[in-house]
Amino acid sequence: MALTTRRRALTTLGAALAGSVALPAARAWAGENARGPRPLWRAHAHNDYEHPRPLFDALAHRFGSVEADIYLVGDQLLVAHDPVELDPRRTLESLYLDPLADLIRANHGVVYRGWRRPVQLLIDIKTEGSSTYLELDRHLRRHRHLFTTYAHGCVYPGPLTAVVSGDRAARVPMEAQTVRHAFYDGRLGDLGSAAPATFIPLISDNWTLAFGWRGDGPFPEAERHKLCDIVARAHARRQKVRFWATPDAAGPARDALWGELFDAGVDYFNTDDLAGLEAFLDARRRP
Q1: How does strand 240-244 pair with strand 202-206?
Q2: For an engineered disulfide with 109, which of 21, 113, 131, 251 has Cβ 3.0 to 4.6 Å away?
Q3: What is the pLDDT of residue 34?
Q4: Of the candidates 142, 145, 148, 153, which has an alpha carbon nearest to the alpha carbon of residue 164?
Q5: Domain count of the chain?
Q6: Is residue 117's pLDDT more than 70?
């Protein structure tokens, strides 16, 4: 009886979540004319908030992932790279959550019109992780209809997927939750661990700590094999892969390294050069 009741509750929750982001009419999905340009799902806007138009510059270049660094100040989540840049007007709500809510409403339940796949919002915690995450969770719950949700072992997709990175102390309160509106950004040490993709859907790490090659000269075969093995192991567990601290200055070294990441199947390309990555991915003719 308890099992039946739980299944019924999960089914009801899933239907409610799906209904909150459903399009009001099937005709909105009919034909290519209902779609905007194909998003570049593998493009990640590193330190997105430093662009002239946070969020909107990345979306104009069709990026599938954006990153916001947050600091807990009182009960506010302020967005900045360093503490000296904190500005009470630049909050997670004002720069990301509210504009995304407006955009998703205007696009009938999605970030990119006609494309159902969730856009990733990577939230990098810069202050103490546990307390900052608990405040972040309160903010996300106010916008719960926007976010992919984990509930009692099941994942219900939304137009946005929040992934929490940064201070590692966020992991403890996140793992304790049976319902949450965010997921955890793992490290290479989490590959093959007991934590499932329903908790760690993304494996991210510093390229310079794992690889010696910076794009100059040929890619050593041992490092190419290591990269392919990392991607294969993550994908086997339905996890995605991202590296930061890769070369980001335009030139042959960056192009060579991006080419190796592309060929190995790395899921997200980290960059501050929105136009440069857009041109690279478009030239490859694959999102």
Answers
A1: parallel
A2: 21
A3: 75
A4: 148
A5: 1
A6: yes
